[in-house]
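Example 3.2
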Amino acid sequence: MAMLHTVFTLGFAAGLALGAASAQAQLLQPPPERPDALMRAATSEVIAVLRQDLTAGRPTDVARLVQDKILPLFDFDRMTRTALARNWRLASPEQQAALVVQFRTLLVRTYSSALAEYHGQEIEYRPLRGAAGETEVLVRSFLRRPGAEPLTIDYDMADGLSGWKVFDVKIAGISLVLNYRESFAAAVRSGGIEGLIKSLADRNQQNAPGAKGNGAKPLATGT
């Protein structure tokens, strides 16, 4: 499990970096027609910021980067629904809203620290496979790692009213969202929807900046 967590930490951090600039870019100019072009453009801007900070020897303001750039790109509502599966229907609208907030916070706080560990890795995209007009596509990329095989990072993206959004990330072929499904189901079985919300809230409190013993540990996954 430790090895899987390490891979997810590296891969998801890269994923966050890849998507960081897209929301503001959409506000300033027409978005690229292709989702892979959108992600590639986002990559260039964010990597530039990370490299500037690395060269200058200053830490990246990860919290601000995540809040301003990353959150708008991901469809956390869909990600939460997918992770909850049929248990989503057991939750009231208020509980569903709370679950989305807590799951979003879990993902962002768990992996924000990894984003600050960028050391100049190269990210490349594969040609997009998909017919014109498709509203859901898989954007494939890989992270080059010195002395190791490239790490594949694939994005399930959907086109909607607010543009292309990521609704799942697959690291080395493993779904980030589905990786939480078993642990979420176990929490619901033992304590109901409120029990899952409390488990997520407790974990997020532990992961909060400045929390004693903060190790940015995610809720245990089912893998």
